[in-house]
Amino acid sequence: QVQLVESGGGLVQAGGSLRLSCAASGRIFSVNAMGWYRQAPGKQRELVAHIGSGGSTNYVDSVRGRFTISRDNAKNTVYLQMNSLKPEDTAVYYCDARVTVVGGSYDYGYWGQGTQVTVSS
After folding, report:
1. pLDDT tens digits for the chain (121 residues)?
2. Nearest C-alpha neighbor of 98 from the set 48, 29, 5, 45
3. Which residues pair with 75 in a beta bridge?
4. Fewest Cβ atoms nearer than 10 Å: which of 2, 9, 77, 105?
């Protein structure tokens, strides 16, 4: 009923920037919290940044000051602006969203398919 489609990943040199986008579509009544996670090879998936429905944000310490999460509620889209990228930021980045569908009573979590970010040294 709900799809999350990510875009914007790629290969960048250390110190460079990328902007990820994630658009939610389907039978959506409301989109609540949204976030970005990442998973590097051999590591667990970790929360990178989170934004509430009212715009409050939080970040994992390793990206605070370099990454900025934002959202466009009219487009049901969340963004992740990544600056000063480091090789250790290399991972598959996934977006997630808590969505209440049309006719639903509760929100459920949905995941995007992931987008690869590779930072070369």
Report:
1. 899 999 999 999 999 999 999 999 999 999 999 999 999 999 999 999 999 999 999 999 999 999 999 999 999 999 999 999 999 999 999 999 999 999 989 999 999 999 999 999 9
2. 29
3. none
4. 105
Nearest CA to 30 out of 64, 60, 71 is that of 71
Cα separation, 38 vs 31, in Å, equals 21
Q: What is the model's pLDDT at position 17?
A: 98
Q: CA distances (Å), 115 to each of 29, 40, 79, 102, 106, in order?
A: 26, 12, 13, 28, 28
Strand partners for 20: 80
Q: Which amino acid is present at 82?
A: M
What's the pLDDT score for residue 15? 98
Three-state DSSP at 75 gives helix
Alpha helices, DSSP H, located in the chain: none
Cα-based angle 111, 87, 110 (whole degrees, multiple of 5): 5
The CA distance from 71 to 52, in Å, is 9
